[in-house]
Amino acid sequence: MNFKNIILSLFLIISIFSFSNVNSIIEEKLNESSNYQKSLENFVSTNYSNSIYNNWFQPYLSLSTNQLSGFTITEDGVSDIGLNADINIANFYGVNFGVQIPFEIKTEDNLDFDLKKENISLSITYGLKTEYFSNKLTKESNLLSSQYNLEEVEDSITTTTFKEIFNYYYLKNNIELQNQKLELLQQKYEASELEDEKENLKKQILNQESLILSLKKSFGTINLDFSENLYIDSKSRIKNITENDYDLSIENRKDVEALEIAKEVDKRNTNLWFLPFLPDLNFSFGVRDYENWNWEFGINFQYDIFDRGERLGESLTRKNNISNLEYNEKIDNINRTINNYKNNIESMYLELQIFEIDYENLIEDFQKSEILNNHGYITDIDYKLNQISLELKKLEIENKRNEILLEKLELLNERGLYIRGELD
Q: Which SUPFAM superfamilies does UniProt cross-reference here (predicted)?
């Protein structure tokens, strides 16, 4: 393996290691976030609820003792044990199926199982007010909404982490340069013999000290295991995301899809506005003793003749198509936010152009100062101050570019991109 391949391999290893640091930092912040834990708990709960409602083919199995014989121990030993095995299939389009299989365990001499075929029963129940499809859609809407909330918390923490990495880099280098500038100003103050110049330099020193304290205060709020590789890799990752051509549509955002489903639920509720005024009817059908085909059909009902307006209130709620209004408001807010991000990015690019023009001017000034310094027309201190001004402007340009990257990342997120998912 030649030297070039060795360097390339080391670079890849460092990149992978630094990326794992990015992920580990984000993962640590997620684990420490109560908001994330609540969102995760809510998502797991809604996902489980949705799964239970839709997986009707997964039966409930239970085993119970017979109410009459049960399980009894006497001085003569253990009595015969009567058991019931119940199999229930719930929510098959709102219909519940149940099968009960009774059997008895004989305890005399050797254990013996006696299946009570004549007592096997089948039951089918259905409620008139059962709104299977509306309930199904509501659970799907809740699941999408909870998933969106979870991903939004993840993306918020991910974006905040990148901001901290960029801010750490900017503040760290800014403080170093400002300290160098302060030291040069102090040297210039000590070397000056003119009172007016010394007074002016004193003000500059005080302003410089105040600026450094402010920068250190901001720097102290960032708790981060920083490294140059972490910064380089983070910037590279964001560039890859922001430069990709994603096929995004706000209508495909999970929160928008959830509201779209909620609109369908509201439509169904509106069509059944009279449902609260109907009696609670439950139909049941059962079969016992299959050999003789003993069956029964039953109807149970309850009807409130007078109430305090609860049914009217529920009916009016059904008629209010609030989800449609929420959907329109959501779309308007998203489009407004997207436009704000686009305007911010455009404004940032204009600021960047101004910074770059200033930087070009500073380069010219620095080149002139270099010539003047070589010929002894300006001091080394003034030359170094010009050099620091150039470095500070260069740092400002890099920071502005980072801010643009972060703003683009926020824009993609608003358009529906799951940022955290792009990092895995």
A: Outer membrane efflux proteins (OEP)
pLDDT tens digits for 64-75? Answer: 776 555 566 665
CB 144 within 8 A of CB 254: yes
Query: How far is Cα 399 from Cα 355, in angstroms, rounded to an integer?
Result: 11
Euclidean distance between the first and final Cα of the chain, in Å?
Answer: 31
Return the higher-pLDDT residue of 417 and 19.
417
Element (H, E) at 45: helix 34-54
Indicate yes or no: pTM above 0.85.
Answer: no
| Helices (H) then strands (E): counts for the chain | 10, 9
> Which has the higher per-residue pLDDT, 22 or 411?
411
Q: Could you tell me which residues come within 8 angstroms of residue 232 by beta carbon, excluding any fewer than 6 positions away?
A: 18
Q: Are 319 and 270 in contact (CB under 8 A)?
A: yes
- What's the pLDDT tens digit per position in 100-156? 777 776 666 666 666 666 677 778 888 877 888 888 999 999 999 999 999 999 999
Decide: 81 and 71 in contact? Cβ < 8 Å: yes
| Domain 12-53+134-264+321-423 architecture | Up-down Bundle (1.20)
Provide the residue ranges of all domains of the chain, joining segments of one domain with +: 12-53+134-264+321-423, 57-92+95-129
Q: Do the Cβ atoms of 116 and 106 come closer than 8 Å?
A: no
Q: At what angle do helices 132-191 and 380-415 cross, to 10 degrees?
A: 180
Report yes or no: 120 and 102 within 8 Å, Cβ to Cβ: yes
Dihedral, CA atoms, 377, 383, 385, 386, nearest 10 degrees? 100
Which of the 8 DSSP states describes residue 118?
G
- What is the distance between the alpha carbons of residues 272 and 103, in angstroms, rounded to a whole number? 45
| Residue 203 DSSP class | H
Q: What is the pLDDT of residues 171-208, one digit of tens each?
A: 999 999 999 999 999 999 999 888 899 999 999 999 99
Look up residue 181 and give its amino acid: K
Chain CA centroid to CA 319, Å: 33
